[in-house]
Amino acid sequence: MVINGKTALITGGVSGIGKTTAKMLAAKGANLMLLDVNQQLGDEAVKSFQSAGTRAAFIRADVRDEAEMRRAFEETLARFGRLDILFNNAGISTPQPGFTRIAVEQWKRVLDVDLLGVVLGCYLAFPLMRENGGVIVNTASMAGVYPIPGDPVYAAAKAGVIHLTHSLAYWSGKRIRVNCVCPGQTDTPLARQQFRDEKAAGRIAPPVRKLISPEAIAEVVLQFIEDDSLAGQVVEVRPSGAFTVEARRAPKKRE
Question: 7-244, which class in CATH?
């Protein structure tokens, strides 16, 4: 896909990986619809993009809320006339002190944001992209590839995003490519806050020098968008590089 002139909707788009990806898309001539729950950061991001000559808008919406998400997609079409790229990037982690010692509603929120929000984004994008095609990129995590005993709910949600992506590979036949990026621990405001919380809880947080830059993740996202041959691909990003996560295949029938 040639990005120039295309429209991208980015959830969790006003900080971290989302904002970094938005900057790279803007540099290539994309229109931006940024979606987040942080109104102040959203207003600041849009002002910055617009002052640089990018057509950009912000809408406050919760990815768990179908009505708010529908409104965001409708507003994207109203402002820009099209939707070509969806980056399902919004995500949260399980709060301290962890899975078995927090209220059920807290870990349900993690599942709703990290998995249901991605499912809903794909669901709402499909009819808008069906005629002209498009690209969907989902953010999962290396936690969805490997067991994470310290945060099993987060790991389960991200594993669901990976399997969702592999399962939607057939959409490429409808000219909608769905791919997924699985970052390792990335240098974002959310990650740094999580590390502070872990330290406060007496847990060992990884050293900052091992964090991946948001730019490294954004580069993979852009590759997914620009390379028309990539569909149903899941790529994990570590400090040592990017690696493909192969889809699990059903076993052959036994006689």
Answer: alpha beta
